[in-house]
Amino acid sequence: MRISIIAGNWKMYKTDREAYELASFLKKSLKDVKSVKVVLCPPFTALSSVKRGIEGSDMFLGAQNMHWESEGAYTGEISASMLLSLGCQFVILGHSERRAYFGEKNQIVNLKLKAALENGLTPIVCVGERLEEREAGKTEEVVEDHITGAFEGVESEQAGKVVIAYEPVWAIGTGKTATPKQANDVHRFIREKLSALYSGEVAKNISILYGGSVKPENAKDLLSQADIDGALVGGASLKAESFEKIVRSGII
Ligand code: 13P
Q1: Mind listing the pLDDT tens digit for each residue in 104-113?
Q2: Catalytic (active-site) positions
Q3: Could you give the residue ranges of the DSSP H alpha helices within 137-179?
Q4: What is the pLDDT of residue 100?
Q5: Which ligand 1 atom sits closest to the C-alpha of 213?
Q6: Which of 160, 172, 173 is nearest to 127 (CA)?
Q7: 109 Cβ neighbours under 8 A, 6+ residues apart
Q8: In degrees to the nearest 10, what's the CA dihedral of 235, 240, 241, 243?
């Protein structure tokens, strides 16, 4: 049984103080929620404040990116051990914004994925097609390429610890959500690929989240699909009220 995961990707929003306030508010408002794993992924600068804000709750802390080396002369970068030292348990990797604006390719995502797993961080690996790719009928090809690229050389035992987020690029921040069926079809395809790469057992246990304009109004329909195990929420995770509603939609 895969437990629902609702993760908030705060992207480059929230100062340290704002982040602390949102996190501590959510700690109170989501106190009774036990059957959903809630992960908050603020910017690096607010990780320790958010950790303080959720202290004593069942919520988890995640980062939005990391470097694959454990340390070194990499100005501006952050390593897995640094994230761990702040209490992170999750890290988002290969987000489409990193792929589009920072030149992250599969090979880099793969290095980061391995480093996260070696350090005991749970990677949330993002995959998804752009609009022109969907229109050209290449959705499955692109998603398969992202999956095989990210998992290259990852052993089955480790692969089972990864969380995947299917985020069609055309649905991110656009208000255009994939229909529950469109999303579930791709989720099922991803699970089939994982089954072929590893085993049915590994594929069955991997959580696959949907991301792209998830809102309180569409969350329940998306989350009720058989292969959708949670959501990676951008814009709607920045407001306590909408994020709380989305988390509650994940309660079974
Ligand atoms: P929106 O929910 O704002 O569309 O963003 C989705 C996303 O990119 C989450 O990682």
Answers
A1: 999 999 999 9
A2: 95, 167
A3: 139-151, 156-159
A4: 97
A5: 4
A6: 172
A7: 93, 94, 125, 146, 149, 150
A8: 50
* CA 236 to chain CA mean position, Å: 14
Q: How high is the pLDDT of residue 2?
A: 87
DSSP helix/strand/coil, 44: helix
- For residues 87 and 187, what is the distance between their CA atoms, to the nearest angstrom? 30
Q: How far apart are CA 148 and CA 233, in angstroms?
A: 24
Chunked mean pLDDT (size 10), the chain, 252 residues: 93 98 98 96 98 97 98 98 98 98 97 98 98 96 98 97 97 91 98 98 96 96 97 98 97 84
- CA 9 to centroid of chain Cα atoms: 7
Distance of CA 152 to CAs 2, 19, 189, Å?
A: 24, 35, 18
Mutation test residue for ligand 1: of 172, 177, 222, the one with most atoms within 8 Å of CB: 172
Q: What does residue 186 show for φ and ψ, rounded to 5 degrees?
A: -70, -40
Give per-residue pLDDT as tens, 16-33: 999 999 999 999 999 999
Specify the residue for token string 């391995």: 114
List pocket residues of ligand 1, CB cut-off 6 Å. Answer: 9, 95, 167, 172-173, 211-214, 232-236
**Residue 176, pLDDT score:** 87
Q: Which atom of ligand 1 is nearest to the CA of 237?
A: 2
List the structure tokens of 162: 């990864």
- pTM of this structure: 0.98
Cα gap 66→44, rounded to integer Å: 10
| CA geometry: angle 157, 161, 167, nearest 5 deg | 130
